[in-house]
Specification:
With 264 residues, the protein is an alpha/beta fold. Helix content is 32%, strand content 19%. The chain has helices at residues 22-32, 40-48, 67-72, 83-90, 110-114, 129-141, 159-165, 182-189, 228-232, 251-263; strands at 2-4, 34-38, 53-58, 77-80, 99-103, 119-123, 146-149, 174-176, 193-197, 203-204, 215-219, 236-239. α6 (129-141) runs parallel beside α7 and α6 (129-141) runs parallel beside α10 (251-263). It starts with a strand and ends with a helix.
């Protein structure tokens, strides 16, 4: 149902208020069971992955291009407003088409997630949403089966993460560990060799021979890297060799390099 509004305080747009307030949204979105997808491509990828929409928010000129999506969900509210009203609602210039409020899925247990996964990426306390989204995009491109994130890791379904990943957060199964670092012991118990990627690793990741048939690659937070507890819980410590006086790569770049090396 298409509804045209002129006020930023209309209750139909409550899901979209203050999208740039990270501190607010990281609490309010999971609590409300929603997340926000931005742009035609990302919205379509979420729908193709089976995510269910709550509503759409857009300016008039995007109605035609998303006409098929609107037709597929005739009971969904499609809220249309002028660009200045959209900016007042969201806190930024909405220029990428539409926004969609989507129902947040129930995450699987760690055991259920990994029951069929051979290759796994594990993220410890990566708080930058851009890096989380970039890791998901690399994982999807390099055929990683699943991703596990620690309790303090940034939300993969936050708008920035989804946008940077180009919607690939919907393509890679994932869950958030409940207990940390005890979750690493459970991953090992399921048959995965746990490998900590760290600049101080004893082994060049390219020298693994053979590469374990089931592996879980652990990546640490920006700056301080992996915690001692996480390092101690892993079977191996591996590194990407650096040159030119560089001590390490950005975590998203490191994830891509390491996953490519392991998949070879």
């Amino acid at each position: 149902m298409i509804v045209r509004i002129t006020s930023a305080t209309d209750p139909l747009v409550n899901d979209y208020v203050n999208l740039t307030d990270v501190a607010l949204r990281r609490v309010s979105e999971p609590k409300s069971g929603l997340f926000v997808a931005e742009g035609d491509t990302v919205i379509r990828r979420a729908l193709a992955a089976g995510y269910q929409p709550r509503s759409l928010l857009m300016s008039e000129r995007w109605l035609e291009s998303l006409g098929d999506v609107i037709a597929d969900f005739p009971e969904m509210d499609v809220v249309v407003a002028a660009p200045d009203v959209l900016e007042e609602i969201t806190g930024f210039n909405v220029h990428r088409g539409a926004l969609a409020s989507m129902h947040r899925p129930t995450l699987p247990s760690l055991r259920d997630l990994l029951s069929t996964a051979r290759t796994v990426v594990v993220l410890e306390d990566i708080v930058d949403h851009t890096n989380v989204g970039a890791v998901f995009r690399s994982a999807a491109a390099l055929s990683v089966d699943a991703i596990v994130i620690s309790p303090r890791c940034a939300d993969p379904l936050y708008r920035r993460s989804v946008k940077v990943s180009m919607g690939t957060v919907f393509a890679v199964p994932w869950t958030r560990a409940v207990e940390w670092p005890r979750a690493l012991d459970e991953i090992r118990s399921l048959g995965h060799t746990t490998m900590a990627l760290t600049p101080s690793g004893a082994m060049n990741i390219r020298d693994l021979d053979p590469v374990p048939s089931k592996w879980a690659l652990l990546l640490g937070t920006e700056g301080t890297g992996l915690t001692d507890a996480a390092l101690d819980a892993c079977d191996l410590r591996v590194r990407i060799p650096m040159a030119g006086g560089v001590d390490s790569l950005n975590v998203a770049a490191a994830a891509a390099v390491a996953c490519y090396a392991l998949q070879q």
